[in-house]
Amino acid sequence: MKDENLVEYTNVGAFKLKIYYLKSAKSTVEIIRDFQVRVRKKMLNDFSGIKIYRDDFKVRPYGDDGAFYDWIDLSKRVQSSPAAASHEKGNWRVSPNQLIGSVSISRITNPKLEDTANREGMSINSEYNAFVKLLEGIIAKFEYDRQYPLREYAAWKNEKEKAHEDRRQKIYEQVMKEQADKEEREKLKKNDDSSEADTKDKQEKKGEDYTKDDLKDVIYSIGKKKDYEMTVNQLLMVLSSAGVMAQTFAHEISRIATNLGSRGQHLKESINLLLDYKPYIGDEDFNPYDMLEELSSTDILLSEWVNLIMDCVNKENFHTQEVFINEFLVHIVEKWSTLLARKHIRIEDINCSEDIKLSLPIVDLHLLLNNFLLNSAYFLEECEGERIIKFKVYKEGQKIYLDMENNGPELAKENLQNPDIVLDATVSSKFGGTGLGLWVARESVERNDGRLQVIPISSGFMLRAYWKS
C-alpha cells in the first residue's frame, strides 16, 4: 500500500481472519497430497464462503448463498487473472467456492462497521471499503505464498521434461537417419538371396535376444507411426476447417453458384442490346460471343462443383436414415454429370435393384462415392480411348455389396500383394497428393460396420464396399 493511502485503513480496528483453502478436484501436480473428492465437495458445498462474526454473533448474509456469498469480490479477481497456480507468469487467484473462513470483529474495536437500519448487512462506508481491501490484501498474500512453490516446481519439472524430450528427439532423429540408410541399402541388395539366408540363420541363432538393430527397428516403426498420425491429424483439421467454412457461408456460397450459372446469359443479352441484335462484325480474335461461350462453359462447371460441395455439407445428411442406394446413385451421377462430361467420362447404367437400402448418414455415402469419382476423374485422364465408370449393387447372404469400377490404369505391381495399402492415408501415386481421399472413403464405410477393399482387376481399378444388411 502506498503511504498516502494508509490513512483510510487507520479507522479499521483489530479483527481476526481464519481461512482454509480446499481444492474440489484432484491435482495433477505430484507434490500435492491426495484427498477424497466426494468428502471434499460435500464440505465445500455445506460450508464454503467467508462469514462475518461480531462479538461471536453471525452477521448475515455475509458468506451465505445469495448476493453476499462473494462479498469480497473474489470472482472478479479470478476473471481478471484466471492463470493456474503453476503458470510461469500469470497470477493465480483463489475462487470463493474454494474457501471456508470467518472474520471476527468487535463493536468495541470496530464501531464504524455498523449494521444498516434494516439489519440486512453492514453500512457501506469508507471504513467498510477499507476493511474489504485489507481482506483482499491478506488473501493476495496467501495466493502468492501458495503459488510460489508450485510455480518453482512447475519450472523445474518443465526443464527436466524438455531436457528429456531433447535427448529423445536426438535419438529419434539418429535412428530415423540410420534406418533410412539401411532401407536404401536393403533395396540395393534385395535380390541377394545368400545375404537373406545369412540373415535368417543369424535370427534363428539369437532366438529371443534382441540386438541393437532390433531395437532401432522398433523405434523407427514407432517414429514412422507418430509421423503418420500427425500428418493425418493435420490434414483432417484442414478438411474440418474447410467443412466448417462451407457450412458457415452456405447461403452465400449457394448464391454464388446461382450467379455463376446465369451470368453468362445476362452478359450475352447485354451484348445483344449493344449490337442491336445484329451479328458481330470485326476481328474474330475479339468476338465477344466466342468469349462468352467459353466463360459460360467455365461458369457452369464451377457452379456444378460448388453445388456438389454444398450438397455434401447439408446438416440433414449427418443423421442416420434409411437410404435407397439406387436412388442415391442416380442423384450422385446427376450431380457429377457436367463435371465428368468435361473430361469425356461416361457412367454406364447403374446395376442396382430399387429395393436395396442401407441405414447410415447420407454424408458417408457422399464421402465414399465422391472420393471414388474424384480419384477416377484424375486417373482416367491417362486413358486414350473410352473412359468408363461402372456401379453395381447386389446382395449376397446378409451383406450388401457396392462395386465401383473404372477402366483407368491398373493397380501398381508393387501393391498387388497388399492392394489395400492404397487406402492408407499419406499413400498416393498422384504428384503432390495427400492420399487422404481413399482413406476418408474407407473410414466412411468402416464407421457404419462395413469394409472397403481394393479388388485387383486386369483392366482398370475397382473398389468394393460392403455392409451388413
Automatic annotation (TrEMBL):
Q: Name one GO molecular function term.
A: kinase activity
On whether Lipid metabolism is a keyword of this UniProt record, the answer is no
Ranges for domain Histidine kinase/HSP90-like ATPase come to: 364-454
Q: Where in this protein does the record put region Disordered?
A: 178-208
- Any Pfam family: HATPase_c
The UniProt entry, under InterPro entries, shows: HATPase_C_sf, HATPase_dom
Alphabetically list the UniProt keywords. Kinase, Transferase
Name this polypeptide is given: Histidine kinase-, DNA gyrase B-, and HSP90-like ATPase
Q: Which organism is it from?
A: Anaerosporobacter mobilis DSM 15930
